[in-house]
Amino acid sequence: MTFDLILKGGAVVEPHQVTLCDIAVKDGKIVQISSEIMSDGVSTVELEGKIVLPGAIDAHVHFNEPGNVEWEGIETGSRMLAAGGATLYFDMPLNSNPPTIDVPALELKEQLSAEKSVIDYRFWGGLVPENISELESLSERGVIGFKAFISNSGFEPFKCVDNLALLNGMKEISRLGKILALHAESDEMTHHLASQKIAGGQLEPKDYCESRPIIAEVEAVQRAIAYAEITGCALHFVHISSPDAVRVINEAKMRGLNVTLETCSHYLLFNDGAFKEHGVYAKCAPPLRAPSIQQEMIELVADGKIDFVTSDHSPCSPELKDLSNRTFFEAWGGINGGQFTLLAVLEVAKEKGLPLTEVAKLTAEAPAVRFGIECKGRIEVGYDADFAIVEEVPFLVTKDAILARHKDSLYENHQFPYQIAATYCKGQKVFARNEGLSHI
Ligand SMILES: [Zn+2]
């Protein structure tokens, strides 16, 4: 067989082992993995001293196109993810406008992504109070699951579901055999607490955090799990920020419920001390927590209690973060960090002594398995030739290194112990640190 590409001599992270070996690629697929592949006349990349991980899968990004492309966009967003070692993303149904709550909106997104994305993609559909009748056609059209909010989404065209709409939506999603992803924070609690703070003129970052306490997350998780028991609907909890919520979800798993959770890289690398340096760029919902909570979340990742890690990349145009004419409560909440998920997990793994096979699971295999993405998420013969080539060389995040549309980020000035040298999606190089495809 003639090959299109051979990656030679890297430390290859297969599902259960890391070995120094070669990988041969043909027609975008991995066709051979062995200690020495003859490479006469074939394009070859020498990877001695580098790590070859499966291309990361980010199950949670907001590219906001169409409608809010000035916040991010498919082209800038997908290039930014490629620079972070990702080869597949799942785009959320908001904050694009129209949101992905019916098939015409999904088709629009499919068309734009086919034109602009440099890596692979899938789409979440949205569950909002008025679109239960649309879920079946969205499912048939291939959405990977549905996303709903049980607290205010912060984005007016995407309404949160009340308890009845949630219950009815879950019945329908269960019938369709799909997964419901939930932003779980109690709207009643967060709304009430925020109103109190605002009425009292308490508008600092600390007040914002106190208006979204851990109990608001835990209560919403418990309620959703109760509904899952009744409806049989599979659940995936997005951006879980607290050890208490992780424990409640794991207890439900132990009882046999079809439920998973993700946390985000920002809950692992940062805590509420980050407001001092990054101010409103550290604002997200749920908020960054206390340092002790951050440490517990890292331990839970190390203990295998968290299914996978995502970015929840959700930037906005700079004026929505401008505090000269709005309060901290009114500023957009969302982290500009899609480029750093794999690097964040590598950092946590180094700190906790986790094997690279675990990094591959947390960033690629687990989301592929959970959402039934065939031939992705592993380095294995027959799988897509999706690779993140990583080097253990410190990487200080400067504005120039950030490839997202906007450069202000919580991650600015963070130093990672690793950096991404190159990324391949289906055998094609989509990022290379040293070839002018980025400013790194
Ligand atoms: Zn999100």
What key attributes describe this structure?
single chain; 440 residues; alpha/beta; Urease, subunit C, domain 1; TIM Barrel; 2 domains; 8-stranded mixed β-sheet; 6-stranded parallel β-sheet; 13 helices; 32% helix; globular; binds zinc ion
Can you describe this structure?
The chain has 13 helices and 19 strands. With 440 residues, it is an alpha/beta fold. The protein folds into 2 domains: 5-52 and 382-402 and 415-432, Urease, subunit C, domain 1 (Roll); 55-370, Metal-dependent hydrolases (TIM Barrel), CATH 3.20.20.140. The strands form 4 sheets. Strands 1, 2, 3, 4, 5, 15, 18 and 19 form an 8-stranded mixed sheet that branches. A 6-stranded parallel sheet has the order 9-10-11-12-13-14. Strands 6-7-8 form a 3-stranded parallel sheet. Helix 4 crosses helix 7 (214-231), helix 7 packs parallel to helix 8 (243-254) and helix 12 crosses helix 13 (356-370). The chain is globular. The model has no long low-confidence stretch (mean pLDDT 96). Bound molecules: zinc ion. Zinc ion (ZN) binds next to loops.
